[in-house]
Design a protein that fits this description.
The complex is a heterodimer of chains A (474) and B (93). With 474 residues, chain A is of the alpha/beta class. Chain A is 40% helix and 14% strand. In chain A, strands 1-3-2-4-6-5-10-11-9-7-8 form an eleven-stranded mixed β-sheet. Chain B has three helices and two strands. In chain B, strands 1-2 form a two-stranded antiparallel ribbon. The chains are: A alpha/beta (474), B mainly alpha (93).
């Protein structure tokens, strides 16, 4: 039996190299967990068993050849919005239910080059719009810590997959917190890298100025290995950036900034006390703690829910029921086909955002909403720039509470949107951020995980890895 | 105040068919969301109109793949085709 619970990429690599187990045996072990638990939890929408085993055999060969790298033979789960050639990528939507990817996303290309094993595609909120996977067209994923609760979202399938060891690592995408919030709810590490550091080529677009692919793992070290495998400038994504544009000077002693004033908005008491314990722990580890002010960050959620629907409304215009995806015959003419295909292909949240986005971009409202939101976005970014003159990383809780119950918030979109309050700012400002597990709360007989979030300057992922590893004693 | 008729018009501009019931629900929800996001209006004073740091990244306008390389892959996803064409309904009368 392979001890999947305590496995890391590094340990798996060493074990395969030393002959403790083979890459095929490792993949089989994860496939077995999926078989046992997937029907109950609804984590994977599809398992690519045959292809995964083939990749594992190729990985074995690379270990024999001596061409194996760290990610060779490592079983990875993919969020359902990341293209993998000749496999379905549905983005959790009826409109793409039978869509077969015609090319590999850049991240999948890089995983293949490294010899990783792709286990399957994981459930998500439709087109990554949501914080609970309740917006998936294929049913909610259940939180492994309490099956009455949501796993968070939108990458809830990927975080639950890693939490129950049905994948060693996973990829998610993060537009307003979609890697970090579900990571906190599932008790794993969720990482959102600097905007542009990983190519978006082959990631089904939601909000193009906010989207980034991110690692979901059990340890910060694994997030670092996965990030290093998939990062980099890409000719297929003009917003991608190379890694060495910032001067990486490690400060001898990192200073942690805490926006106390911002934290006073509606945070669960237990979250706050867990957060304060984490702060004390970091203080006792020798970090200097400094109170900082981010006066405009409180406008993040309103700014986000103008900019992201605006980008959604234009990005999702491509789904017309003609080129690919669901087609519903509307009878009379082409327009009717569009109306019917999109009307039945999209779920309620996607429709809500497209309509909201169409409204904030329409003439007469464009200045008051979209342009104003873009101006406030600049102010928020400026708040961070100033704060980072005084501190190296900024610490907040990842969420305002532990995982909520399935159905608890579905009828109140604004309440649902407030889930992004601590995670959204990093997307608005393009900053790297990581959520790491920080403990548990007891609720109705379940132990529910909590997370804290570190945010760093652009391209200072190295600082997040350093402090994250120290915090988790890695 | 956004009305149900406006919601229906926006939906039709976005090429999404909505039922009366959906339009009713959407009106209430969009109103609540707009009411919430409206708080950004309280940000006043000089919001500097900064020149964006972003710049366009261009590539040479050249064909990078041989003709027909992706045709079959792409068309095999099409709901309706005729040969190497997408089949749609008549647009002009």
């Amino acid at each position: 039996m392979i001890d999947l619970k305590n496995l890391t990429i590094k340990k798996a690599h060493e074990s395969i190299k030393n002959g403790d187990f083979t890459a095929v045996e490792l993949t089989e072990a994860y496939l077995e967990v999926i078989k046992q638990k997937n029907s109950e939890l609804n984590i994977y929408l599809e398992v690519f068993e045959n292809d995964a085993l083939k990749q594992a055999e190729e990985a074995n060969q690379r270990f024999k050849d001596g061409t194996a790298v760290e990610m060779t033979g490592i079983p990875v789960a993919l969020k359902d919005n990341i293209l993998y050639e000749a496999h379905v990528a549905s983005a959790g939507s009826k409109i793409l239910e039978n869509y077969i990817a015609t090319y590999d996303s850049t991240v999948v290309k890089k995983l293949k080059t490294a010899g990783a094993v792709i286990l399957g595609r994981t459930n998500m909120d439709e087109f990554a719009m949501g914080v609970s996977t309740e917006n998936s067209a294929f049913g909610v994923t259940k939180n492994p810590h309490d099956t009455k609760r949501v796993p968070g979202g939108s990458s809830g399938g990927s975080t639950a997959a890693v939490a129950i060891n049905s994948a060693l690592v996973a990829l998610g995408s993060d537009t307003g917190g979609s890697c970090r919030q579900p990571a906190a709810f599932c008790g794993v590490v969720g990482f959102k890298p600097t905007y542009g550091s990983i190519s978006r080529h082959g990631l089904i677009a939601m909000g193009s100025s906010l989207d980034i692919i991110g690692p979901i793992t059990n340890s910060v070290s694994d997030a670092e290995v996965l990030f290093n495998t998939i990062k980099g400038e890409d000719a297929m994504d003009s917003t991608s950036i190379s890694q060495n544009t910032e001067n990486k000077k490690q400060s001898s002693k990192m200073v942690i900034g805490i926006p106390r004033e911002f934290l006073s908005i509606g945070v669960d008491e237990r979250i706050l006390s867990n957060f304060n314990e984490s702060v004390s722990k970091l203080e006792s580890m020798g970090y200097e703690i400094k109170d900082i002010k981010l006066p405009n960050v409180k406008y993040t959620v309103p700014v986000y829910y103008i900019i992201s629907p605006a980008e959604v409304s234009s990005n999702l215009a491509r789904f017309d029921g003609i080129k690919y995806g669901l087609h519903i015959d509307g009878g009379g003419n082409l327009l009717e086909d569009y109306l019917k295909s999109r009307g039945s292909g999209f779920g309620p949240e996607v429709k809500r955002r497209i309509i909201l986005g169409t409204y904030v971009l329409s003439s007469g409202y464009h200045d008051a909403y979209y342009n104003k939101a873009m101006a406030v976005r600049e102010l928020i970014t400026e708040d961070y720039r100033k704060a980072f003159e005084e501190v190296d990383v900024i610490l907040t809780p990842t969420t305002t509470g532990p995982a909520f119950k399935i159905g608890e918030k579905v009828n109140d979109p604004v309440k649902m949107y407030l889930e992004d309050i601590f995670t959204g700012p990093a997307n608005i400002a393009g900053l790297p951020a990581i959520s790491v597990p920080s403990g548990f709360v007891d609720e109705e007989g379940s132990k529910l995980p909590l997370g804290i979030q570190f945010i760093a300057r652009h391209q200072r992922e190295d600082m997040l890895f350093e402090i994250g590893k120290k915090f988790l004693n890695e | 105040m956004i009305t149900r008729e406006e919601i229906k018009n926006l939906a039709s501009l976005a090429r999404i068919e909505v039922t009366d019931l959906e339009a009713e629900k959407l009106t209430k929800e969009v109103l609540a969301i707009l009411d919430y996001v409206d708080q950004i209006q309280e940000v006043t004073g000089v919001i500097e109109n900064k020149v964006s740091e972003h710049r366009n990244v261009m590539r040479d306008d050249v064909v990078t793949n041989s003709s027909g390389l992706y045709t079959e892959k792409l068309l095999s996803n099409a709901p309706s085709r005729e040969g190497n064409y997408l089949k749609v309904k008549k647009i002009l009368g």
